[in-house]
Amino acid sequence: MSFKSAVKKVMPSKVFETIEPAGHKAEAITLNTLRGFPAKDLKVIGVTGTNGKTSTCFLIHRMLREAGYNVGLMTTVAYGVNDDIHPQIHHMTNVSVPEFLTRLKEMKSQGVEWLVLETTSHALAQHRVWGVPYSIAVMTNVTHEHLAYHGTFARYLDAKKKMFTIANHNKKGLRTGVINADDPNALIFAKAIEKPLTYGIKKGDLRATNVQLSPNGVSYKATFGNVTYNISCQLPGSFNVYNSLAAVAVGQVLGLTPEQIENGIAVLQGVEGRMTNIDEGQDFDVIVDYAHTPDSFEKLFADIRPMVKGKITAVFGSLGGGDKGKRPLQGEIAGKYADEVVLTQEDDRFEDPDQILNDIAVGAEKAGKTKDKDLFLIHNRTEAIKFALNRAKKDDMVLLLGKGHEKTQEDANGEHPWDEIATTQRILKTKH
Question: What is the pLDDT of residue 125?
Answer without folding.
Answer: 82
